[in-house]
Amino acid sequence: MNTKNNLLRLVREIFSFFPVKMPVSIFLILFSAAINTFPSIFIQKIIALIENASPSVSWSKISVNVVRLLIILAGFYVLSLAATIIQGQLSAGITQGVLMRLRKKMFNGMQNLPLKFFDTKAHGDIMSTYTNDIDSLRQMVSQGIPQMLTALITVVAILSIMLYFSLWLTLVTLTGIFAMIIITKRVGGRSARNFRAQQKNTGELEGFAEEMMNGQKVIKVFCHEDDSIRDFEALNTKLFTESEKANKRANTLGPILNNVGNILYVVTALAGGILILSGVRNVSISGLPMSISVAIPFLNMTKQFAMNINQLSMQLNSIISGLAGTGRIFALIDAESEIDDGKIILNDDAKGSIEISHVNFGYDENVRVLHDITLTAKPGQKTALVGSTGAGKTTIANLIPRFYDVDEGEILYDGVNIMDINKASLRKNLGIVLQDTNLFTGSVLENIRYGNLEATDEECMNAAKLVSADEFISRLPEGYNTMLTGNGANLSQGQRQLIAIARAAVANPVVMILDEATSSIDTRTETLVQKGMDALMKGRTVFVIAHRLSTVRNSDLILVMEHGEIIERGTHEELIALQGRYYKLYTGAFELS
Prior knowledge:
elongated; 12 strands; 2 domains; alpha/beta; ABC transporter transmembrane region fold; 6-stranded mixed β-sheet
């Protein structure tokens, strides 16, 4: 979406958010800007009173008229002050309201995005949209647009007054203004590209910084501190270069335009003097002759005109930066949502039969990960997937809950194609424990209840006892009320995984997918949790992905995978008797990598 469309869309959004406040705010801006042009008119009238006064008129009478005009002008200034204060209050509410609603739109939309979006986007870059881009928009809405609108109205009003007083002096002024516009277009246009690049590079830098923070242990283990610093400095230098160019050009524009305005002031004064001395006939709407009472107010208007043109050009940078951020905000809002065309809602009596038939799939259309996968998991059956890293085990676990959709073939849940089942309904009937555990800021109890928000405290505690998590939770400083932060950084990896398993248990799903669920638990803890896991899996359809073959011995069906294909299938005893890949893996003749 281009800059013009972003601006138009933003204006529509603001008016839709504030259909009354926004027009009132604009009216107050126009009102205040119009009043700021009145001094030139009053100066002309005051000078004309003095210039055209006959010798018979007393100075006291002239003074009374001058004072009357000044009082009227002061009254207008009081009204302008009141309008500015009210508009400032409205602007604060409008600005923060717009940001609040856009943040809400971004976050709500983000909840409906497919996993592929997050797999292909740096999380820090997404966070930059919520911070830097929103801040750029804030500056544009609260300062850039109102000040630009004020300057624009002032310019139009002053130009009208200039034409009213003198066409000749107006042409002189416009010649200088034309030069200012050319300069603004050339310098401002270049800085616009740099400001857009600055926003993009800021997102990249924040994305990298987040990755480095999350991977500090890995960085230190492999002594990559220097490499990380070097990569950071490359991104930081790139951001510095674009930011420096943008701000240099922006900072150059102001002084140039100020001096053009000063030169224009001098040229206008000379032109006015020459026209008066030469006796050139004035051409104007007012019909006033060329005189001091026309030339002096014109100088004030020329200065004001140049200042507001300068203000327009300076706010242009804020607008450009804001629109660059707005484009990224709208891009996140408009990101294609996860498609859910399933209409069928699973009943509470779902049996949990899973049938995968001739499935082919690849995360990238040019690279296939699964090749003609076919398997059947009967209700209550425990199916184990084993094989080397990258064999496609986790990919199958991603396809069953429709985190990704198959390219070819079909997956049936109780005989129904999962493409026809409502995703929320499908996922409510699936429990998943991943190798990478995610805990949220909150108490231990709240993290367990995340599996079923309607679960009671007792049900959450029973789920923890079932998977042997109650023992360590009871030893925490505040037990189940212990607060967790930083993804449970105050717990061991095994303890975090036990909470995740308890979370799945409290959800009480018909089908369970355990993707390396015990990989981070030590042997002693695994012995404790295995009993609870067996109780958890009883009566459910279970898929177990494991490297530790000791955990899959009692599986009803074991599938051995390699390079996206199932190369062996059977029970533990059948596969041992076959003396193929599973036999070699189990006896240690061939190790999983």
